[in-house]
Amino acid sequence: MRNQIFVGCFLAPLIMVGCQSAEKQTNSKGDKPNIIYIYADDMGYGEVGVNGQEKIKTPNLDKMAAEGMVFTQHYTSSPVCAPARCGLMTGLHTGHAYIRGNKPVLPASFTDAVENGQQPLPDGTVTIGKMLQKAGYVTGAIGKWGLGMTGNSGAPNRQGFDYFYGYLDQRQAHNFYPTHLWENDQWDSLANPYIFVHTPSSRGSEGNAQAMERFAKSDLDYGDEGFFEAYKGEEYAVDKMTEKATQFIQGNKDRPFFLYLPYTIPHVSLQVPDAALEPYMGNFEEEPYLGQQGYAPHEFPKSAYAAMISYLDQEVGKILQLLKAEGLDENTLVIFTSDNGPTFNGGVDAAYFNSTAGLRGLKMDVYEGGIRMPMVARWPGKVPANSKTDHVSAQYDVMATFADLAGIEAPIGTDGISFLPALMGKIIKQEHHEFLYFEYPEKGGQLAIRMGKWKGVKTGLRQQPHADWELYDLQKDINEVNNVAKQHADIIKQLEVIAKREHGEPVFEEWDFMDKVLSE
């Protein structure tokens, strides 16, 4: 610390091997609780009812909050997908993490023929999965991975997960009706045609031949009647995730399990089953989205976005109900949160839904709207019901927290602090961070440090390495409107010292401009 399988062994021979391995580790639950970590994709702080959302219904998450604890100052590790997941998995902030941006393995493509994924976690990485396997847990990851592909070092089965099901390549996850998902290292075909979702700006570009052929056969063009139907399929990926999660929980109920459940909602494209869309039809004034900001078009974009979040809420409800039905409710910690703030493209109107609850910034921003996350935790009899905590924490604290839960030491050299005392309502025993550190080399190069009530921000660092600090007093100015840097030179000096100390040399050349920024 620097700052202070089983899914039914009948499914496949590979999974049977995983089951045998788990039995060698432990045949009884002992005192170890089950852990389920549900990770939404691009869901804003204000997109749950408990945080003030009024237009989108999230009854299951609101009930989960009433039965558990809401964290009001919980941060992701990064304002974008891959580095957020890296920080979560490794317990490292983005000044130390291997993956600091959404860097694809080239050649990159949205097609089935070329599925190379993002930069993989290297061999030797210590992950939450590996840590909990050693502690006697059977581990599963079901949803969006984004940290490596089958056959390379970042594959989830090589990074501590006995079982994986879902998307390996984040680009594939832009389509909720894919031709396939991955089950461990095997392609699991779904009953969907190939759908190329990046239109119209990318229509006719690399990889779009199959989509163009479909349009040619139907003689459709943008906005034509029936055009929007081309972006629908038979099997919705989220349904498959919940189905596999159900099997994993039922198959491992007699042993301690860790289920990492990174759903892909509400990341665009705007795709949701018609039945889920129906309750929102007519609720909003809206015009068709034709794909002008990328991703798939949708005839009713506001209704679709709201319906996607409610669909995710429904799936969370299914998981919680399953735990009760299987008698696991009182021995399972469930955490719900998101990887980063709401998006700005793909037909999403974050301002209309007040998706950040008024916080400044969106996805890819180190302002609060991009990095402060909704978080709800539930564990009957352990986590105080209907409670809130203002404890300042980050997702790179999760590894230390789960080590604490499992009764083991957290790996040496990580940046996290266990928030288990706060989670259990014992805030007086809770250790606190001196600071939280966020380094993001994309979108111009950004840096943020949360230090007590103070928040320092730098942006545009690629072009202006000596950009001035912005400074906000979050106790008085949670929306980061009033820059008080000139009045607090002493705080700025402290931020400079932290930034230079916490930045480690990145592995990839396109991120090394941050070395110059933070070494002078």
TrEMBL record:
CDD domains according to UniProt: ARS_like
InterPro entries the record matches: Alkaline_phosphatase_core_sf (IPR017850), GAG_Ulvan_Degrading_Sulfatases (IPR052701), Sulfatase_CS (IPR024607), Sulfatase_N (IPR000917)
Coiled coil: none
MF GO annotations: hydrolase activity
Keyword check for S-adenosyl-L-methionine: no
Keyword hit for Hydrolase: yes
Keywords, sorted A to Z: Hydrolase
Superkingdom of source: Bacteria
Leader peptide range in chain numbering: none
Domain Sulfatase N-terminal: 33-408
Family to which this protein belongs: Belongs to the sulfatase family.
Protein name per UniProt: Arylsulfatase
Biological source species: Echinicola soli
